[in-house]
TrEMBL record:
Annotated residues for binding of Zn(2+) 1: 10, 13, 30, 33
Protein name: DNA-directed RNA polymerase subunit
PANTHER family tied to this protein: DNA-DIRECTED RNA POLYMERASE (PTHR11239), DNA-DIRECTED RNA POLYMERASE I SUBUNIT RPA12 (PTHR11239:SF14)
Entry annotated with the keyword Glycosyltransferase: no
Sorted UniProt keywords: DNA-directed RNA polymerase, Metal-binding, Nucleus, Transcription, Zinc, Zinc-finger
Organism: Aspergillus campestris (strain IBT 28561)
Role this protein plays: DNA-dependent RNA polymerase catalyzes the transcription of DNA into RNA using the four ribonucleoside triphosphates as substrates.
GO MF: DNA-directed RNA polymerase activity; nucleic acid binding; zinc ion binding
UniProt similarity note: Belongs to the archaeal rpoM/eukaryotic RPA12/RPB9/RPC11 RNA polymerase family.
Compartments where located: Nucleus, Nucleolus
InterPro entries assigned: DNA-dir_RNA_pol-M_15_CS, Rpa12/Rpb9/Rpc10/TFS, Zn_ribbon_RPA12_C, Znf_TFIIS
GO cellular component: RNA polymerase I complex
Protein residues bound to Zn(2+) 2: 83, 86, 111, 113
GO BP terms: termination of RNA polymerase I transcription
Amino acid sequence: MSAIGSLLFCTDCGNLLQNSSADPTNFLFCDVCGARNKDAAPGTVISESKPSAFPSSLRAKRSAVQTLTAEDRKTEAIAQHTCAKCGRKEMYFSAVQLRSADEGSTIFYRCVCGYKETTNN
Ligand SMILES: [Zn+2]
Ligand SMILES: [Zn+2]
């Protein structure tokens, strides 16, 4: 093990702990705050605090994306269009302008059964 790998820090105040024996059953007492720290591998101590700090911002981003997709689905309207597969008389539809404006738009029908249909105006 390298010298850096054997460094241990107090989980309470971050003070560098002396006399690490790298023995997980041993306890080290912090010189600064007196907290009892397990004399374990430093990786276990460091990884305890980090994951909670970053994923919270990642989670916030992900929920923003989910809000967007939820609003996208709201733009789907229900049309009086019979599903060719299950016979339902209502299908979700959304119109997309795929080509130039004077050629009209493409309408996508979507049934709750999974059937999809595309119509060009
Ligand atoms: Zn301490
Ligand atoms: Zn259907």
